[in-house]
Amino acid sequence: RHKGWPRWQRKIYYVVAEPGEDIRSRIWAFVDTFFILCSIILFIAETEPYFKERIAEKNSTWYYVFFWGDAGCVLFFSADFLIRLVVWPGKLGFVKSVLNWLDFLAILPFFIMIITEYMISGDPNNPDAADGSKGQFVALKVLRLMRVIRLLKLARHSDQLMIIVNVLKKSLNELSILVLLWMIGIVTFGSIIYYADNNEEQSELKSIMMGCWWAVVTMSTVGYGDIVPKTGAGKVLGSVVVFLSMIFLALPMTIIVSKFSSCYDDLKYQDEDDRYYESSDEEDEEDPAEFPNHKA
After folding, report:
1. Among residues 269, 266, 274, 273, which one has the least CA distance to residue 295?
2. For the CA atoms of the chain, what is the radius of gyration?
3. Residue 53 neighbours by CB distance under 10 Å
4. CA nearest to 79, candidates 96, 99, 112, 103
5. pLDDT at residue 102 above 90?
6. Which end of the chain has a smaller Cβ tally under 10 Å, C or N?
């Protein structure tokens, strides 16, 4: 049996990097999910007017609740990231993992915000330090928005979600057909509606770009109603676009659904086979450096 650090490295790896392998990994996944949800709740709640006004008050209770709550979540995420970095078999594989990069991007904005806000305002805890009236601190606002990446960390704990991601990778060609047809329809119908409705004085279609926006809304059958044709020809064209868009988008969708279904079944069976062989060979493993291939 493996002794010393390799043995402990293997055990810790299965806990933090292989969700669902045993009760310890399930507990770790539950704790990780708890902190992810807490972080997202804080991210959303701090934009509510009730909390936003109170957070703006320096040294208020809510001021520290939100800051230290987010700091606690980032502390756990950082510890989780560093532990996986230490126990990961082969650091090159760690670097190549997309999920690990998402984890890194989820914690990086917090530290950049602390350093930058301290340099700007001298107060690292002020959550409104970046709200410059002239837009000087747009970069900080973008960093705050990047906190939503933490929600993607949940993908690590869902095999089904990872299978869907891999299916999307294998279906890029079919998806590109849908995007291409959609773009052709947008430019074509946007140009036609512009010239059909442009002569009307009250027309809201002042350019082909606005016509393309109208085509996007109409082809997706959303129909915001912010821009509508005023002429009879424009209204007739709008009716035709609604009808054609259903055909336009339905034709490639049949191909995509078929490919998606076949890829999903293949990857699902492959994942089940991998888990079966990993569990069968685990007790016969001789090399402590050999770990199962972790899905990126």
Report:
1. 274
2. 26
3. 11
4. 103
5. no
6. N
Helix 138-145 and helix 98-121: axis angle, to 10°? Answer: 140
Contact indicator for 66, 127 with CB cutoff of 8 Å: yes
DSSP calls for 203-257: -S--SHHHHHHHHHHHHTT----SS---SHHHHHHHHHHHHHHHHHHHHHHHHHH
CB 36 within 8 A of CB 70: no
CA pair distance 80, 102, nearest whole angstrom: 13
- Cα Dmax for the chain: 84
- Residue carrying structure tokens 């409705």: 197
Cβ–Cβ under 8 Å, residues 20 and 271: no
Q: State pLDDT tens for residues 184-215.
A: 888 998 898 888 887 777 777 888 898 899 88
User: Of 210, 204, 206, whose CA–CA distance to 187 is shortest?
Assistant: 210
The Cα–Cα gap between 218 and 186 comes to 9
Tokens of 152: 């993607």
In sequence order, what DSSP letters do the residues of 172-213 get, joined into one string? HHHHHHHHHHHHHHHHHHHHHHHHHHTTSTT-S--SHHHHHH
Q: Please provide the average confidence, as pLDDT, over all residues in the chain.
A: 77
What separation in angstroms does the CA of 3 have from each of 17, 46, 91, 287? 21, 49, 21, 12
